[in-house]
């Protein structure tokens, strides 16, 4: 039966009012979405499945749409290189001449640098692996500045990885899907990057505002910066490695220090994603794994916390503490004297040689002497020192 | 009798929505010519303005919400930011519907600019509250300017569907 012929057929609701109600409901939903958003936390959890799906679908679509632009650019490059070969050749020759001078300086500086490093015993960071990616979509509005790159979790990209092009830092990865990753640009309003002025080492936080030149905030020191100073990443907080080029300092129209990004001078269609998560990955994990570990010392299960000393500590525990020597203060030995009367010398004795619990004298002072920290602490701290001489467990 | 049929939502809601999505994707292409990038207008402002003038509707706010959510996902912004901003613009246009309808093109263009300004101001405010930072006014103005230039599309949409539904003539 059609609706109009039913009992509610004559019910007439003013459309304007129903439209207004629909509008209010939609607004409430939008507000709920906005309140639930955790984009500013820049965590993988905040980058939900919906966004990952949109990125995964957008990648091929945007890739196809961006392709004609890319081909046109390549075509224009080809044609211009054909017509301007002679002038370009002259320019390159002049550049080469200049670069030869720089090369000699570079080699001299490398030599000097190596000498300084060996003198100081400086430990430099190992190279960071990276993944090349093509940008398929680029958004540059005032409220969001991101790029969609075509490399994702299948290549080891994770949230937090810094992204560079051949000139400088571009931003960092804020969302990863299979085959795609979302890069938050330095210019985005949610972007905060610890940087420093290369000349003075003055620290600042590079803060995006949706414009082309992010601000330098929390700049400290007396006269820490001047026009044209090179700004690099400071590595503070472990977000990005230290020393990545960012840009040059300029005074903005609003009187604030801003940065002209080096990355803007390069083409936007290719980026490199540094597979850098934090400084822990720069340590030699192999060396850490092969290092002998300290002995595991636990509280003696035979000793009751309720009564006086019932048993002596196990020799194995003492064996770990004994070589520490300096780590175990004599007072500790004294407090446990009733049970370890023979001192360190008795430590290596096998468990079978241990006197029975009943034969152990029970002095009145033994109860306070048995607290766990007194005996267990030296044994836990000692092995790090004891490791090298004894080394083995 | 054909003229008495109500307007099909797919025509005046569905098609513009799809076109807005496509235009947004096209304009997000990473192209730079002589150091200049493509502008990034908010194409969804066209239906937000036009739909309110064509007729009050229950579906239109939800279509705008969906468009806004798409923009947030695709542009990588805070979820709900553009949904809310577009709905604010739609509500403004709906409230001023009786004053705008039937006006000359320049006046309607001015109204479109005003509604766009309200949407951008909303986006500015919501963005500030969400990120606890102030977006660049210059960047906001630039996007406002390029979005305002989209009025001819809104005018075309209004012209096409304003009289399409006999119940709202």
Brief account:
The complex is a heterodimer of chains A (393) and B (169). Chain A is α+β, with helices and mostly antiparallel strands and 393 residues long. Helices cover 34% and strands 18% of the residues of chain A.
> Gyration radius of chain B, to the nearest Å?
16 Å
Largest sheet of chain A: 6 strands, antiparallel, barrel
The number of helical runs of chain B is 8
Return the CATH class of the domain at 130-282 in chain A. Mainly Beta
Total number of distinct structural domains of chain B: 1
Beta strand count of chain A: 12
What does this structure look like?
- Chain A is α+β, with helices and mostly antiparallel strands.
- Among the domains of chain A are: 84-124; 130-282, Rod shape-determining protein MreC, domain 1 (Thrombin, subunit H).
- Chain A is 34% helix and 18% strand.
- In chain A, helix 5 crosses helix 8 (372-387).
- Chain B has 169 residues and is mostly helical.
- Helices cover 68% and strands 2% of the residues of chain B.
- In chain B, strands 1-2 form a two-stranded antiparallel sheet.
- The mean pLDDT of chain B is 88.
SSE topology sketch:
The complex is a heterodimer of chains A (393) and B (169).
Chain A: H1 15-36, H2 49-83, H3 85-120, E1 130-140, E2 145-149, E3 162-164, E4 169-177, E5 180-185, E6 192-197, E7 203-207, E8 215-217, E9 230-233, E10 245-251, E11 257-261, E12 270-274, H4 285-290, H5 315-321, H6 330-335, H7 366-369, H8 372-387
Antiparallel strand pairs in A: 1-2, 1-12, 2-5, 3-4, 3-12, 4-5, 6-7, 6-9, 7-8, 9-10, 10-11
Chain B: H1 9-27, E1 32-33, E2 36-37, H2 45-54, H3 59-75, H4 81-95, H5 97-100, H6 105-131, H7 137-148, H8 151-161
Antiparallel strand pairs in B: 1-2
Helix pairs in contact in B: 1-3, 2-4, 2-8, 3-4, 4-6, 6-7
Pick out its properties.
heterodimer; A: 393 residues; Thrombin, subunit H; six-stranded antiparallel barrel; six-stranded antiparallel sheet; 12 strands; 18% strand; B: 169 residues; mainly alpha; Arp2/3 complex 21 kDa subunit ARPC3; two-stranded antiparallel sheet; globular
């Amino acid at each position: 039966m059609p609706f109009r012929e039913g009992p509610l057929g004559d019910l007439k609701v003013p459309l304007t009012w129903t439209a207004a109600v629909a509008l209010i409901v939609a607004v409430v939903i939008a507000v709920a979405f906005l309140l639930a958003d955790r984009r500013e936390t820049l965590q993988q959890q905040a980058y939900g499945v919906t966004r990952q799906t949109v990125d995964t679908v957008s990648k091929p679509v945007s890739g196809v749409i961006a392709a004609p632009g890319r081909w046109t650019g390549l075509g224009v490059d080809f044609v211009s290189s054909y017509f301007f070969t002679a002038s370009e050749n002259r320019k390159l020759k002049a550049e080469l001449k200049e670069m030869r001078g720089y090369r000699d300086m570079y080699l001299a500086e490398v030599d000097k640098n190596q000498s300084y490093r060996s003198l100081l015993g400086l430990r430099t960071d190992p190279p960071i692996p990276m993944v090349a990616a093509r940008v398929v979509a680029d958004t540059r509005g005032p409220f969001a500045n991101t790029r969609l790159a075509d490399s994702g979790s299948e290549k080891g990209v994770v949230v937090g990885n810094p992204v560079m092009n051949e000139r400088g830092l571009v931003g960092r990865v804020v969302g990863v899907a299979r085959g795609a990753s979302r890069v938050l640009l330095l210019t985005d309003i949610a972007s905060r990057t610890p940087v420093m002025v290369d000349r003075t080492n003055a620290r600042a936080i590079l803060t995006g505002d949706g414009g082309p030149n992010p601000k330098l905030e929390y700049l400290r020191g007396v006269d820490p910066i001047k026009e044209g100073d090179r700004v690099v990443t400071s590595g503070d907080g472990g977000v990005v490695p230290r020393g990545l080029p960012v840009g040059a300092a300029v005074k903005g129209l609003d009187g604030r220090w801003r940065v002209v990004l080096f990355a803007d001078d390069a083409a936007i269609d290719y980026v490199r994603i540094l597979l850098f998560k934090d400084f822990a990955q720069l340590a030699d994990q192999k060396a850490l794994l092969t290092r002998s570990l300290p002995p595991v010392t636990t509280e003696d299960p035979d000793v009751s916390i309720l009564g006086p000393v019932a048993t002596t500590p196990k020799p194995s525990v003492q064996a770990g503490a004994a070589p520490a020597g300096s780590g175990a203060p004599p007072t500790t030995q004294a407090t446990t004297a009733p049970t370890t009367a023979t001192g360190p010398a008795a430590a290596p004795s096998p468990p079978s040689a241990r006197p029975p619990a009943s034969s152990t004298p029970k002095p009145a002072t033994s109860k306070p002497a048995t607290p766990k920290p007194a005996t267990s602490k030296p044994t836990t701290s000692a092995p790090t020192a004891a490791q090298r001489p004894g080394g083995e467990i | 009798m054909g003229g008495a049929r109500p307007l099909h939502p797919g025509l005046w809601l569905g098609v513009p929505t799809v076109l807005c999505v496509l235009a947004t994707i096209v304009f997000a292409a990473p192209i730079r010519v002589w150091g200049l990038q493509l502008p990034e207008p908010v194409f969804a402002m066209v239906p937000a303005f036009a739909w309110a003038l064509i007729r009050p509707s229950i579906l239109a706010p939800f279509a705008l919400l969906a468009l806004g959510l798409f923009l947030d996902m695709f542009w990588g912004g805070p979820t709900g930011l553009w949904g809310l901003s577009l709905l604010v613009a739609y509500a403004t246009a709906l409230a001023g519907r009786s004053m705008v309808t039937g006006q000359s093109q320049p006046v309607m263009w001015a109204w479109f600019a005003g509604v766009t300004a309200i949407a951008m101001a909303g986006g500015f405010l919501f963005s500030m509250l969400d990120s606890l930072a102030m977006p660049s006014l210059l960047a906001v103005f630039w996007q406002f300017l390029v979005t305002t230039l989209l009025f001819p599309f809104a005018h075309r949409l209004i012209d096409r569907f304003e009289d399409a539904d006999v119940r709202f003539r």
